[in-house]
Write a structure and sequence with these properties.
By secondary structure, the chain is an alpha/beta fold. It has helices at residues 42-49, 66-69, 72-81, 97-104, 160-165, 171-179, 209-215, 232-238, 243-253, 271-279, and strands at 4-10, 24-29, 32-36, 58-60, 88-91, 115-117, 124-128, 133-138, 146-151, 155-158, 181-182, 185-186, 191-194, 198-202, 220-224, 257-261, 285-288, 294-296. Helix 7 links the parallel strand 14 (198-202) and strand 15.
Length: 300
């Protein structure tokens, strides 16, 4: 059975708090595991969330500030310690290759797993699999930063009323799905396009074209909202978004489920992020991320 869900490992910005670990997010997608922005403490958060090193197939780093990458050393060593039986691919901004190499070889350990580095240097596709295309878009932050987006290929949804109208039932339903035509009736005659699911991950950034491109039509958008709206000037100065800005992006992009995260330690009332997101006009599903939360990607 396919599982598509976000496992939130950490939600703090810059420094951890008593209740929030540094960043870390695992996307489970049909047996694949993509780990985004493993900050300090991610390995322990994985243990608490029931996530094993064997669950990881890709690591995607948006940028090389510590709260998004200091956990790489421990995660990579754990992958090798547990002798994960499949290769793992790491995506990160190409300008930060030296940071990745330092973290990868921060201490001595025995390499047992093939870890492929696939740095990101421009907007566009990074990988194409049977179940998704992974792409990156440049964001606006004081250091080079990229957001990521998964897009499932479109499929087809069988319509029972059309099958009945053409007298197709039983084993013939499977046959027309496999062969595309049955006694002059095409698959298109008895089905409609089912748009593939879309997931977007946007971390530290100001508003920019990349944010809007990543969010467009997403079924789930995980996006930073470091500041509340009254601190919009701080957000611009430090290369971040406010809750209202993030929600307005989701509103205009037609996002179905918005997950706000990456909160400054200056705030103690998570409910205010929700209030400001709703005030910005976002009417879809909304989650204010908490450590160890699990959120299902909305089905199509």
């Amino acid at each position: 059975m396919s599982v598509r869900e976000l496992v939130v490992l950490g939600t703090a910005s810059q420094v951890p708090t008593r209740h929030r670990n540094h960043n870390g997010y695992l996307l489970r997608w049909d047996g694949q595991g993509i780990l985004f922005d493993p900050g300090e403490g991610t390995q322990r958060q994985m243990l608490r969330a029931g996530v094993a090193a064997h669950d990881l197939n890709r690591i995607c780093v948006t940028h090389f500030h510590g709260d998004h990458s200091l956990g790489l050393a421990g995660v990579i060593q754990r992958i090798n310690l547990d002798q994960v039986p499949h290769p793992v691919t790491a995506h990160y901004p190409a300008s930060g290759r030296h940071f990745f190499e330092r973290l990868r070889y921060a201490t001595a350990y025995r390499e047992t797993v093939k870890l492929t580095e696939a740095p990101v240097g421009a907007d566009g596709p990074l990988a194409v699999t049977d179940t998704f295309t992974l792409e990156a878009r440049r964001l606006s932050h004081p250091v080079e930063s990229y957001g990521y987006r998964l897009t499932e290929p479109d499929g087809r949804r069988i319509l029972p009323e059309r099958l009945a109208a053409h007298g197709i039932a039983g084993p013939d339903v499977g046959r027309i799905q496999r062969e595309g035509v049955l006694n002059g009736v095409t698959l298109e005659d008895v089905s409609e396009v089912r748009r593939g699911q879309r997931f977007a991950f946007v971390m530290d950034t100001r508003l920019c074209d990349g944010v809007h491109a990543l969010a467009e039509g997403a079924d789930m958008l995980v996006i930073e909202s470091t500041f509340l709206d009254e601190d919009a000037r701080l957000a611009v100065d430090h290369g971040h978004l406010t809750a209202g800005q993030a929600a307005a992006v989701a509103r205009d992009a037609g996002v179905r489920h918005l997950v706000l995260t990456h909160f400054s330690q200056r705030y103690t009332e998570p409910g205010e992020f929700e209030r400001q997101a709703r005030a910005a006009g976002f009417e879809g599903e909304l989650s204010i991320a908490q450590d160890l939360m699990r959120v299902s990607v909305p089905k199509r």
